Amino acid sequence: MLAQFMRLRVINPEGAYWRHGIETAGRWLRETGNTVLRVPYTVVTPEDWGGVGGYPLGQWIAEQRRAYTARTLEAGLVPGLERLGMVWSEQDAAWTGSPSPSGTPPPAATSSPRPPQPGTGI
């Protein structure tokens, strides 16, 4: 998997590499029915996806997040990712209840009241 990722980076110049990632992310959204880009790191697109088959999408998404956090992601690229529903921080998304990778929101953190304990008054 790492070899695929490195081959894509060495063979494709940065602009073509980024466009390929965006194209693959759009296809992933269409194929999965998700509305946000919360792609597990290990996701590699199926080979039968043609020109975007076998692409290490999870690694590409993680790289975009790292660059965004480090403020090294070219500002002009951010809107394209945001239009696709990029989740910039998995941790923030978990706290805000953003949709999960399956497209459904995570279970709400609820605390149901404990039943009173006999003889304790609580």
Structural descriptors:
122 residues
Give an overview in words.
- The protein has one domain (2-96).
- The protein has 5 helices and no strands.
- It is globular, with a radius of gyration of 19 Å.
- The chain is an all-alpha fold and 122 residues long.
- 45% of the residues lie in helices and 0% in strands.
- It has helices spanning 2-11, 14-32, 57-69, 78-83, 90-96.
Summarize the structure.
The protein is mainly α and 122 residues long.
**Helical content band:** 40-55%
Instruction: List the uncertain runs.
Output: 99-116
Count of helix runs: 5
Radius of gyration: 19 Å
User: What is the total number of structural domains?
Assistant: 1
**Average pLDDT figure:** 76
Strand elements, count = 0
SSE string: HHHHH
Shape call: globular
Main sheet characteristics: none
> Class by helix and strand content?
mainly alpha
Strand fraction: under 5%
Alpha carbon gap, first and last residue: 55 Å
